[in-house]
């Protein structure tokens, strides 16, 4: 064997080895293509034999898949987890401008635990509004909110001030949700967003982030606290008597809700519908609300008319009555997605009576010819506390003194063409009417005792002229018209002063 040739001597001009940077595969292929005249791709294949060539494509694909996994799945997954870990507390909210298939919503609150870094959450698509079905556990979407603003989170916190326009996608489901909102003390609203972009430090985007947040809110608790402050008859048509009423309604929630025009049914004795209550442009703010309402007295069936007669009789005599206010699916609202909420209302209330009396005084007229036949001539001074005219067509009744009946009154004023019309807030004295006297020892004793005790101690105004004899109680039934509405009133008034006139 021959020895290998000796290494060439180092050049005298080179004092240190020269370090060369390794060429990349692309540079090597480019150099080979330049020296051999081959196309670049042929030169690349010539440099790498067949087996290593097979590894290049999987390596390239794996790099692409890793990058895609990080960008498309890992980062959105991490961002979604951070968004899910945050908490939203609603301090106030409102539902307004109800239309046939849209409403406006506003929410104010704060976001906590939003992560340690500055991030801006941008909503790229409408946010779905939903609730969780308590039976199936499924998330039921009721609408979609457009215009959700960006949330700028700094230091783990952010302010929420959103005003959105909601398109109701499922009116029936929204009806179930609205009923829960009105009836329950607490309810939950679920926000679902399928396309969110999170801008890390406000610059680096992370796309395809999702969000599901459950907001806990206070409900209206059935609007159980309703108080009728007053009720005054203002109009009478051939179909109904209209009353102007003022109500107090307490909204225990933190939600302001506008329901548009609302019509509720008015029930007496729990069974009989005697009319309705109308509220135009109803808006309930959190806390105490004073609402101006319009009520219609309009019983339909004979049973309703009998119950309504009791209610109206108690009203005109100054006695309060227990009533119920109920909603209806058919006519409480023109918006079908609010109908279940209003139909669920069943609220007890008290209708106050009219405290101003209708009979100011009674006048006995001295007429010897009538006394000879046990008759007495009498006149009534009538007052109308209503804001609609009252026409007295006939009256029947009895006069009671200290528990003893002393006379009966039966006068058909319409037949005599002597209808008494009392103007709104006015006073009128009737013409002379006949009263049949009841002469008995008990009646005479009661009159004498009342006369010696002194008159004018009742609740009505004492006479301004003539001699006051004693006080009586009047129990009567009046056939009258309130405006153009014909009705029979059962009226009782205690302590009516009786005056003596010639």
Automatic annotation (TrEMBL):
State one Pfam family annotation.
DUF3712
According to its record, what are the GO cellular component terms? fungal-type vacuole membrane
- The superkingdom of the source organism is Eukaryota
Q: Report what the protein is called.
A: Uncharacterized protein
Organism, by scientific name, is Geranomyces variabilis
């Amino acid at each position: 064997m021959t020895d290998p040739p000796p290494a060439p001597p180092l050049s005298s001009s080179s004092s240190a080895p020269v370090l060369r940077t390794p060429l990349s595969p692309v540079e090597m292929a480019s150099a080979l293509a330049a020296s051999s005249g081959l196309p670049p791709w042929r030169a690349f294949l010539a440099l790498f034999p067949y087996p290593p060539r097979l590894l290049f494509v999987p390596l390239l694909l794996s790099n692409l898949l890793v990058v895609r996994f990080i960008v498309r799945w890992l980062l959105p997954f991490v961002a979604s987890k951070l968004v899910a870990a945050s908490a939203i507390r609603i301090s106030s909210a409102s539902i307004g401008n109800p239309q046939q298939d849209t409403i406006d919503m506003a929410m104010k609150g704060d976001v906590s635990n939003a992560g340690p870094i500055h991030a801006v959450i941008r909503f790229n698509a409408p946010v779905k509004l939903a609730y969780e079905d308590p039976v199936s556990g499924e998330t039921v979407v009721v609408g979609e909110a457009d215009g959700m603003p960006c949330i700028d989170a700094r230091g783990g916190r952010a302010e929420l001030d959103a005003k959105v326009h909601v398109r109701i996608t499922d009116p029936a489901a929204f009806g179930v949700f609205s009923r829960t909102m009105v009836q329950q003390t607490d309810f939950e609203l679920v926000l679902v967003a399928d396309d969110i972009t999170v801008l890390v430090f406000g610059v680096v985007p992370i796309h395809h982030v999702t969000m599901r947040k459950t907001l806990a809110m206070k409900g209206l608790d059935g609007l159980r606290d309703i108080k009728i402050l007053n009720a005054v008859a203002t109009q009478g048509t051939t179909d109904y008597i209209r009353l102007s009423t003022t109500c107090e309604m307490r909204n225990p929630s933190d939600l302001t809700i506008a329901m548009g025009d609302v019509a509720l049914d008015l029930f007496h004795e729990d069974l009989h519908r005697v009319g309705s209550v109308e509220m135009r442009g109803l808006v309930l703010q959190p806390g105490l609300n004073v609402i101006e309402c319009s009520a219609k007295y309009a019983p339909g069936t004979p049973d309703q008319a009998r119950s309504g007669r009791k209610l109206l009789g108690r009203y005109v005599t100054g006695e309060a009555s227990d009533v119920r206010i109920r909603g209806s699916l058919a006519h409480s609202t023109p918006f079908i997605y609010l109908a279940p909420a209003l139909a669920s209302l069943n609220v007890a209330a008290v209708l106050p009576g009219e405290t101003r009396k209708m009979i100011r005084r009674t006048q006995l007229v001295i007429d010897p010819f009538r006394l000879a036949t046990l008759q007495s001539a009498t006149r009534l001074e009538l007052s109308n506390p209503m804001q609609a005219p009252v026409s007295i067509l006939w009256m029947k009744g009895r006069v009671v003194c200290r528990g003893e009946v002393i006379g009966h009154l039966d006068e058909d004023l319409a037949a005599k063409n002597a209808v008494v019309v009392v103007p709104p807030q006015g006073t009128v004295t009737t013409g002379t009417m006949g009263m049949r006297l009841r002469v008995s020892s008990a009646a005479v004793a009661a009159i004498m005792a009342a006369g010696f005790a002194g008159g004018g101690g009742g609740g009505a105004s004492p006479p301004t002229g003539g001699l006051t004899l004693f006080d009586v109680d009047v129990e009567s039934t009046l056939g009258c018209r309130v405006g153009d509405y014909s009705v029979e009133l059962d009226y009782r008034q205690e302590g009516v002063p009786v005056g003596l006139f010639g």
